[in-house]
Amino acid sequence: MTDEPTTGESASRTPSRRSLIGWGGAGLALGAVAAGGTAAALHTGEDAVPAADTGGAVAFHGVHQAGIATAVQDRLHFASFDVTTDDRAELVQLLKDWTKAAAVLTQGHPVGDGAYGGLPEAPPDDTGEALGLSPSRLTLTVGFGPGLFEKGRFGLEDKRPDALVDLPKFPGDNLEATRSGGDLCIQACADDPQVAVHAIRNLARIGFGKIAIRWSQLGFGKTSSTTPDAQTPRNMMGFKDGTRNISGTDTAALKDHVWVADKAGPDWMTGGSYLVARRIRMHIETWDRSSLQEQEDVFGRSKGEGAPVGKAKERDEPFLKALLPTSHVRLAHPDSNHGIRILRRGYSFTDGTDGLGRLDAGLFFIAYQKDAREGFIPLQRSLARHDALNEYIQHVGSAHFAVPPGVRDKSDWWGRALFA
Length: 420
What we know:
By secondary structure, the chain is α+β, with helices and mostly antiparallel strands. Helices cover about 15% and strands about 20% of the residues.
C-alpha cells in the first residue's frame, strides 16, 4: 500500500479552464481545513483502522477502496448511473477525471479551480456547498454494473467476471426498474450529509454528457458497524442491527469473505469485492401496531439489550434451537448458512410518505462479499422463503456491482486494469 499525504493532488494547474462538461485538471490543496485543521489520513488497506475523529480525512489511495472496511460513517448518498456515451475513450477519461476529483474531495478540498475566483463568464468547477466544512471522513467507492460489459458497448464483454451475475428474483420481491440496476455506482459515505451530497453532485457534473443518474438514495443512521467496540446501531424497527458484522480490522475474515483473491476471477478484480444494494421498504405502520413479544420473536433478540433469546448480553452467542425457526437471527446466522458471512454497510432512510399517507421508510441494505453466489444470493434465498420479518418488509430496489481494488497512487485510476 502506498502512503499518501492528506493534502490531495499536487498544486499544478492547467493554464486554461476545463471544458464546461467535465473537470479534467488536477486539484489544488487549499491549506488547512476549517473546523479543526487538516487531519492525519487513515490507511485504507489491509491494516485499516477506525477513524476516531468525525472531522478527519480517510486516505484515498490504498490496496482496497475506502468505504468498505472503513469505520462506517453516519450518512450516505448512493448514486447509480447509466453510461450515455458509446465512446470507450470518453468513458476512460471520465473514470480518470472522477478519480482525480475523488482524491481531493475526500481530503476536504474543492474540485479543480474551486467554487469562486475563476472566470466570471463560466460556471465554477466546484458547487461550493462544502466550503468551510471538514472532510467528515468522506469515502467514495466506485462499482461497475453488468450493463458495462454488454457486447458491442465498450469491448469489455470478455472481461465480465463470472461472479457479476444478474441477481435472481427472490420470493416477495416487488422490484422497481427506476430503483434498480445501473452501469456505474458511487457510494459516498461521510459524517456530514452535506459533504456526501456535495461529492455525488460534483461527480455527476463532471460526467455531464457521458453519464446520467439512474437512481439515488440518501441514508442516515447506519444500521451496521465495522467497529465492534462501538455501540451497535438500531434500525427503523428499533432493534440493534449488525451485531455479528465483520470487523474492519479483522484481516482474516476480510480475506476469507470480502476481498477477491488472486486467481479467483479476472486479474482486474484481485483485491476488489462485490457490492449488493437492496432498497427494503418497511411496513412501519403495521410493525408499530405489533406487540413487543411479536417483535422480539421476529428478530430473535430482546429489543432493549439486543440479547439473543435466553441470553443476557447482546454479544452472547445465540443458542439457535432456542429461537423460533422463522426468527431472523436464526435464519441469518452463519451456522444456519454453511458459514456464509457478508460485510454490511446499510443505512436507514425516510423518503416522505406515499400516496396513502404511509411513511416511505426502511433499510438501504449494502453488503460486500467476494462472490454474491456464495454470499448474498443463498442467504437471501433462505430469508425470502422463511423469515418472519417478511411480513413487515418488501424489497423494492436491487443492484449488483463489481468493485475494483483501490487506487494505488497518483498515476492510477478507477478501473485502469479493466481497460488495460
